[in-house]
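Design request, tokens follow.
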């Protein structure tokens, strides 16, 4: 077709205008991140955020979340209730406007909300758009109002359905996610519960109740101590040196709240929040805190002569952060977010505000509590000595060329393409699976690195010991971006780091050890979304020449039901339950698959399933790694008992 002919065919009729919430349904990932588990649970968070905003304004002290028996979710708060009077511009009820128009809501009016947790003000209308149905009930002015929606469209106008008791007000939202949009519409109590606990820590005046009517789980969160209790919770499995230090202040209409303490850990765990939003990538508030912490402690050590005059040790920021657990919470009227995942605070003025408040209040605390000050400085001096030992270890390793990217490890089967954006490396458990992976891979963009056995548990080791572990040195060398404080993700040789282990207890342990290593020593790889977990199939189902792979028991049963030609599920793979002519093989390890099978099921980008390791909550991640890999046995036993039902392991 000529250009002129194409122009004639390209007219105004080809321009699609998506009205109302159609744009959200067309491109849901633009609004909630993805249509998997993360995006599904984000729907609840968006509704709860509105209730928390009411609490921030002082209008609400309780939120109730229920996973209903039909799979829908109900969120109830006791705030002011969404306005229902007629909007002066839209000429319809404000409730309907909030529920059906993007960028509509009280968050854009600073007289209604001084600060708010919603990033873009699209929250509840997006939830409405992505739901099969949604019911909104508002108690306000002595009356109860109701409106119902179907895929974001009102079924009728807002109507009055009853009277309230004296003084009653609030909002109740019940919604059913649309199964034609989401991969799964099954909410997990554990995922929602973690976020609700976090919100209760950050808002000490609120009580959050969450209930799962399907599984029978129930929790109630209320923390009078707020983030002080948050820090204690995070350090539950560690030995701490003092009670949490609490700093609170406000400057230029920006409230700042910080709690921190030191433990026997070798890494730091600093969790930062802006208006209850978890800022995974940090930002100006984190920079201000670090600057003030280093300067204030250094000044205190010098003033009180806690560093020997002839000592060659100089305390650095890294030394003051070893073993530090901190929660930083700031409230900003007009937050500006940047970074890869839009979770990095960009407001430059917040740095000086946090720096000023921390510097002043921490100096006062140290003067009033000299014993704690000396304990902290003593710990930091030991950290400095370890850092110097680690530097010497790194230098020694470099001289041996173990970390020199010009000398890649011999067992690495590298790819031919050199652009990291198009390259991926599989870290594979065992030489047998590594051999199959090397034969089955696409050599252009897939590199294979087999590792032997279990790597060092970095949760219990100082950096100089970490650098002495052969398997870790091999991984560090292959990735080529350094380690620890010297890690630079821009130097990484691969855009995807994929962990591929067996689906058994040992495989799970190796995977956890690797994730712990990446989280503690190459955290930026996780926060920027470069770490993945391969999903090899558990079963091969064969009927005649047809071979189908199942990745879990549920998928296996669905395939067998299909082969039976009925909907009656058989929760067993016993021979007498199998359809005629069907055989099932269960893979115990990756080494049981030949190269072609490994490629088609686990490595082919067009057919494989890989899970991206996300950092929804740095606090939760830190807590889990410390619980699973730390020294204290009891919390680990409790965690395993509680989560055993979610594990897919051969025990």
């Amino acid at each position: 077709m000529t250009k002129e002919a194409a122009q004639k065919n390209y007219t105004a009729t080809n321009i699609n205008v998506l009205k109302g919430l159609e744009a959200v349904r067309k491109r849901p990932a633009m609004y909630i991140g993805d249509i998997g588990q993360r995006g599904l649970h984000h729907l609840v968070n968006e509704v709860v955020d509105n209730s928390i905003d009411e609490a921030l304004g002082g209008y609400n002290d309780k939120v109730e979340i229920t996973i209903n028996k039909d799979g829908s979710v109900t969120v109830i708060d006791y705030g002011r209730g969404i306005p229902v009077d007629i909007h002066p511009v839209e000429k319809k009820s404000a409730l309907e406007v909030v529920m059906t128009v993007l960028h509509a809501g009280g968050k854009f009016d600073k007289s209604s909300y001084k600060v708010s947790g919603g990033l873009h003000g699209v929250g509840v209308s997006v939830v409405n758009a992505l739901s099969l149905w949604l019911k909104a009930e508002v108690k306000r002015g002595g009356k109860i109002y109701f409106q119902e929606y179907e895929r974001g469209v009102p079924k009728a106008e807002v109507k009055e359905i009853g009277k309230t008791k004296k003084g009653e007000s609030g909002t109740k939202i019940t919604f059913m996610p649309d199964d034609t949009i989401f991969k799964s519409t099954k909410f997990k109590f554990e995922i929602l519960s973690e976020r609700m606990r976090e919100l209760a820590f950050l808002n000490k005046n609120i009580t959050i109740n969450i209930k799962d009517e399907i599984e029978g789980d129930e929790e109630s969160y209320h923390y009078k101590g707020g983030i002080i209790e948050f820090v204690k919770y995070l350090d539950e499995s560690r030995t701490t040196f003092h009670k949490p230090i609490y700093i609170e202040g406000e400057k230029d209409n920006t409230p700042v709240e910080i709690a921190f303490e030191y433990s026997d850990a070798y890494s730091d765990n600093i969790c930062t929040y802006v208006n209850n939003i978890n800022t995974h990538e940090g930002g100006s508030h984190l920079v201000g805190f670090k600057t003030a912490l280093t300067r204030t402690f250094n000044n205190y050590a010098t003033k009180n002569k806690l560093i020997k005059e002839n000592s060659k040790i100089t305390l650095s920021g890294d030394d003051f952060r070893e073993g530090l657990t901190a929660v930083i919470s700031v409230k900003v009227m007009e937050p500006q977010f940047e970074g890869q995942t839009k979770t990095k605070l960009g407001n430059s003025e917040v740095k000086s505000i946090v720096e000023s408040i921390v510097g002043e209040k921490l100096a006062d605390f140290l003067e009033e509590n000299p014993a704690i000050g000396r304990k902290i400085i003593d710990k930091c001096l030991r950290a400095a000595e370890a850092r110097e030992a680690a530097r010497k270890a790194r230098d020694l390793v470099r001289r041996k060329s173990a970390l020199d990217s010009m000398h890649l490890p011999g067992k690495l089967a590298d790819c031919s393409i050199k652009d990291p954006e198009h390259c991926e490396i599989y870290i594979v458990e065992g030489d047998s699976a590594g051999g199959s992976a090397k034969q089955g891979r696409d050599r252009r963009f897939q590199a294979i690195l087999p590792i032997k056995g279990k790597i060092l548990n970095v949760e219990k080791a100082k950096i100089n010991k970490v650098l002495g572990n052969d398997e870790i040195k091999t991984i560090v060398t292959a990735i080529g971006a350094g380690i620890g404080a010297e890690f630079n993700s821009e130097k990484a040789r691969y855009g995807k780091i994929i962990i591929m282990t067996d689906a058994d207890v040992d495989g799970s342990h190796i995977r956890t050890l690797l994730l712990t290593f990446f989280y503690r020593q190459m955290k930026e790889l996780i926060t920027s979304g470069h770490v993945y977990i391969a999903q090899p199939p558990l079963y091969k189902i064969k009927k005649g020449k047809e071979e189908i792979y199942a990745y879990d028991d549920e998928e296996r049963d669905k395939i067998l039901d299909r082969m039976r030609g009925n909907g009656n599920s058989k929760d067993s793979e016993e021979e007498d339950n199998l359809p005629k002519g069907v055989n099932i093989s269960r893979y115990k390890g990756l080494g049981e698959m030949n190269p072609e099978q490994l490629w088609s099921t686990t490595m082919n980008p067009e057919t494989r399933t890989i899970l991206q390791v996300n950092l929804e909550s740095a606090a939760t991640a830190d807590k889990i790694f410390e619980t699973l890999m730390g020294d204290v046995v009891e919390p680990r036993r409790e965690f395993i008992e509680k989560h055993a039902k979610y594990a897919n392991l051969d025990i």
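Comment from the thread starter after seeing the answer: thanks! The longest strand covers residues 131-140.
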